[in-house]
Amino acid sequence: MEGLLIRSGVAVVLSLAIAWRANRHKSLDRSGAIAGFLVMAIHIAAGYRFGALLLVFFFTSSKLTKMGQEKKRSVDVDFKEGGQRNWIQVLANSGLATILVVTFVMMTGGEDTCLDTKKSKLLTGLIGGIVGHYACCNGDTWSSEIGMLSKAQPRLITTFKQVRKGTNGAVSVEGLLAAAAAGFVIGLTSVISGLLTATDCDADVASKQLWVIPIAATAGLGGSLIDSFLGATIQFSGYCTLRKKVVGRRAPTVIRISGMDVLDNNAVNAVSVTLTTLLTSMACLYIF
């Protein structure tokens, strides 16, 4: 309990500083900064491993979002300086993980543990789900940001036909490799931080934690593919002849490229994250 109280103090100070800086540098708007502060504080207070996962996702994604902004401005109709995210986008990328983190800390009192189904299937599933969650979010962001900077023309995941950059469901080799790399980074972060903070890992259990890295890399790639498939099928994409850009809404000047107008981008992200979280949790229960 003492550790939880200390982490809570650290969480408030650190989260406040990061949220303020993110708002100042236009990574988050005001609503996003408030939501980000709450989410970060909860993660860090619950455990340094969870705080590390969230912060690695946030900082790496923010840096990539700011790369090649002029090129992205010409492609992305919803482009915002600095990649500014609002509270809806913050919660779409962290809401489910926050619920899992709160569940974890209520069960453990804030004591970290290794993934080991012999000790607790539920805790192993929770940690695995959180890792899968951020592997998916990181993979989707890295894939999108690097894919937009690729010189190659992307292809629609359902037909493999070349489409314009910015089309929902479009994939590229560079983007898919980036998604796997993003998941790898999340897995590595979980292993390193987990081994530093967990107190119940003997040699055999500790060595088995390395499986988290390929699992997370697969979750990063798989989550990106799920997101792309949903984007290509139930998220509308069209080319606006007036703005000369791909857009996500129907209009008289918009020529349909792909997808049905069922879900918007935030909803697609939420569905892909939920599926990847569940699948990764199940994979960890099977492996550990």
TrEMBL record:
It is found in: Membrane. It is a multi-pass membrane protein. Pfam families: DUF92 (PF01940). The keyword Transmembrane applies. Keywords: Membrane, Transmembrane, Transmembrane helix. Coiled coil: none annotated. One of its GO terms (cellular component) is membrane. Belongs to the TMEM19 family. PANTHER family: PROTEIN PGR, TRANSMEMBRANE PROTEIN 19. This is Protein PGR-like. The lineage of its organism: Eukaryota, Viridiplantae, Streptophyta, Embryophyta, Tracheophyta.
